[in-house]
UniProtKB/TrEMBL annotation:
Pfam families: DUF5753 (PF19054), HTH_31 (PF13560). It comes from the Bacteria. Transmembrane segments: none annotated. Residues 20-76 form the HTH cro/C1-type domain. PROSITE patterns: HTH_CROC1 (PS50943). This is Helix-turn-helix transcriptional regulator. InterPro entries: Cro/C1-type_HTH, DUF5753, Lambda_DNA-bd_dom_sf. The lineage of its organism: Bacteria, Bacillati, Actinomycetota, Actinomycetes, Kitasatosporales. It comes from Streptomyces millisiae.
Length: 282
């Protein structure tokens, strides 16, 4: 069993803290001396060095100057921002509503050549209809207690998904068969979403796979994740979005995707499962 993405984020924070400790020791300073030079309480240095507090850009600059290591500032500031972006709570992301979050991903979607997407719980965002997206995003806003702009956010999600039709990108999208049966929205919304899957899976750039209920599992159902080329993985948990860029960890998700890909069915066999889900709506 692999470590959770949140554990990976904490490990990245601890690696940054270790680099700061190394700077202090190389300078021959005690923690209390760094605190005094920075004008901080000594407990702040302890929290930073133990990975409990993520230092701000200003903290990094003060620390490096106290240790006579100004040349380390750009690299450590960049590392701090990477750690800060790695694990971000949904309530923070959605604090002004969900629409803005859909729009901020547009540059990432535009520059990605190959999308690999696995969803164990909902239809992939790239393939959602407006009705399905609105129902889903409204539920998310209500659960999180954040501003509900579900209709506008759904429109922004569909605008972001235009990459499906541009012809400059390739998509491999996998879902567990259970996803086809979950009732997100009304029966009419569910039927419209399933019908749309039948349409979009015929696009030349799209490979859509369904992992059957009866598949012999070589990998258990895992968290929903997206791989953007070989550069970044976005993982969705109940509480947060995790962004992974470390090559070894990206490779781990690529390996998992390969296992899931081999368990899925495509083409006529996938269509049959979608049709069965439509029939089950009555």
């Amino acid at each position: 069993m692999t470590a959770s993405p949140s554990s990976a984020a904490q490990a990245a924070r601890e690696r940054l803290a270790s680099r700061l400790v190394d700077l202090r020791k190389t300078a021959g300073l005690r923690a209390i001396e760094v605190a005094a030079r920075c004008g901080w309480h000594k407990s702040k240095v302890s929290r930073i060095e133990n990975g409990r507090t993520l230092p701000s850009d200003a903290d990094i600059r003060a620390w490096c100057r106290a240790c006579g290591a100004d040349e380390q500032i750009p690299d450590l500031v960049a590392a701090t921002r990477t750690v800060d972006e790695m694990y971000v709570e949904w309530k923070r992301i959605h604090r002004t509503g969900i629409r803005r979050r859909q729009e901020t991903d547009v540059p990432l979607y535009d520059r990605t050549g190959l999308f690999r997407v696995y969803c164990s719980n909902v239809v992939p965002g790239l393939l959602q209809t407006h009705g399905y997206a609105e129902a889903l995003l409204g539920t998310i806003s209500e659960f999180q207690g954040t501003p509900n702009d579900a209709s506008e956010a759904a429109s922004a999600r569909l605008a972001r998904s235009r990459v499906i039709f541009e012809g400059r990108h390739r998509f491999v999208l996998l879902v567990e068969e259970t996803v086809l049966r979950y009732r997100i929205g009304s029966p009419a919304v569910a039927a419209g979403q399933l019908g749309y899957l039948l349409e979009v899976m015929s696009l030349p750039a799209v490979a859509f796979g369904v992992i059957p209920f009866t598949a012999t599992r070589t990998l258990w159902p895992v968290e929903t994740f997206m791989i953007f080329d070989d550069e970044r993985v976005q993982v969705e948990t109940l509480s947060a979005e995790i962004n992974i860029t470390a090559p070894a960890e990206v490779g781990l998700y690529a390996k998992a995707f390969g296992e899931l890909h081999r368990m899925a069915v495509y083409g006529a066999r996938a269509r049959a499962r979608i049709a069965a889900a439509i029939d089950a709506l009555g």
